[in-house]
Specification:
homodimer; 238 residues; alpha+beta; Glutaredoxin; Glutathione S-transferase Yfyf (Class Pi), Chain A, domain 2; 10 helices; globular
């Protein structure tokens, strides 16, 4: 069976967390919206009133007859099937818990440049974006990154992974979060290696995994850009 | 075994979604922070560097030796154990997917009154709150509520439930979301029964379930107030 991933064709966004899991698992998949007429097919599925389990928004994954939405939910599904989560129920819930905390963080990242409305341009909420970003960098990033550093430091399976002694989708997601922060806030993240050594080491290790490295070097990896969740506005980075 | 729920003692907040599930399941639990020295115990657990699986924030649930965090993750755990989710894996993932969409909605509700920073007072971000709330009510509420109405209308198990033909934790969460919106935005929600008939009917039915009705009438139900996620500011409600 070949998975179909439905996500916006021009950004990494939330879809990237699914792409990384599919790539590491070497699972056959089509990134539908990046194929001819793919985005129209995605929008048609979102509007399809005949679906028993309609997704609220991209990303969603078609696996055979099933359509699964919500990034963390897709990873819960893929993690169990492709060895990207611990084998025990407790380990799986813990990995999922970490993923949900990444999801919370992502909303906050998005709102640094869109604190008022996703439907307005950045320029229409620039003043508010500056205020929100200042609070985000001063208070929220240390809270989240300090937390994940602590999770690594206290992992009974060792500080090389977030959950257990093997790679999980949470590790892949941590890689993506660090990569995104490095793109969006290069000045602030320059201080991270000293503050969050385990976390930055895990980011570097994931980037070197053969399948991930091959993916990152391929055209399948959409570059970071100013339409995604992680955006670089120099005036917000301090 | 008696569960221990850890959440702030003075608000419904995210903890309320867990309380509703525990009450409907008639599961023995202690609302720890509402007992003597309970909030201190909660904060001590959050600061405890010795935990293998530390929660990022309340709510979290202690179940025997396990500590489980993230509201939707706690419900995933409880739903399976207490018959508050479908029996099939596909049904469980679908119920969880709906819960994650409620979680997304909740963040947006919170940010109507705190669009800049959770650490600032409402009065310090009142102008931004007005802008954000206007967009929330005009664009986001119709998107979310229209979606859940559609899920009910197209549920193969019938429009009386969100997932399958029996009550799930997603139905309880829908009740709570409608209750909160009715408190926070009474003017706007007055138009809901005509627009979202299935959704409002489900809210009314959940409120009448014997265990939920008994809970709502008890002192265990903390009233809505101006410290929670759902807050009523008349100037934001239009």
């Amino acid at each position: 069976m070949r998975y179909e991933l439905y996500y916006w064709s021009s950004i990494q966004g939330r879809g990237e967390f699914v792409r990384l899991a599919l790539e590491e698992a070497s699972a056959p998949y089509v990134d539908v919206a990046r194929t001819r007429d793919g985005e129209e097919r995605m929008l048609a599925l979102l509007d399809n009133e005949g679906l028993a389990c309609p997704p609220f928004a991209p990303p969603f994954l078609r696996a055979g007859k099933r359509i699964i939405g919500q990034t963390a939910n897709i990873l819960l599904f893929l993690g169990n099937r492709h060895g990207l989560a611990p084998a025990t129920e407790a380990g799986r819930l813990w990995t999922h818990q970490l993923q949900l905390t990444f999801a919370d963080f992502l909303v906050e990242v998005h709102d640094t440049h869109h604190p008022i409305a996703a439907g307005l341009y950045y320029e229409e909420q620039r003043r508010e974006a500056k205020r929100r970003s200042a609070d985000f960098l001063a208070n929220r990033v240390p809270k989240y990154f300090g937390y994940f550093e602590r999770v690594l430091a206290s992992n009974p399976g060792g500080p090389a992974h977030l959950a257990g002694a093997r790679l999980s989708y949470a590790d892949l997601s941590l890689f993506q979060v660090v990569a995104g922060m490095t793109y969006a806030f290069p000045k602030v993240t320059a201080r991270f290696p000293r503050r969050y050594p385990h976390l930055m080491a895990l980011h570097a290790r994931v980037a070197k995994r053969p399948r991930i490295a091959a993916y990152l070097a391929s055209e399948r990896r959409i570059p970071f850009n100013q339409d995604g969740i992680f955006r670089h506005y120099a005036e917000l980075d301090r």
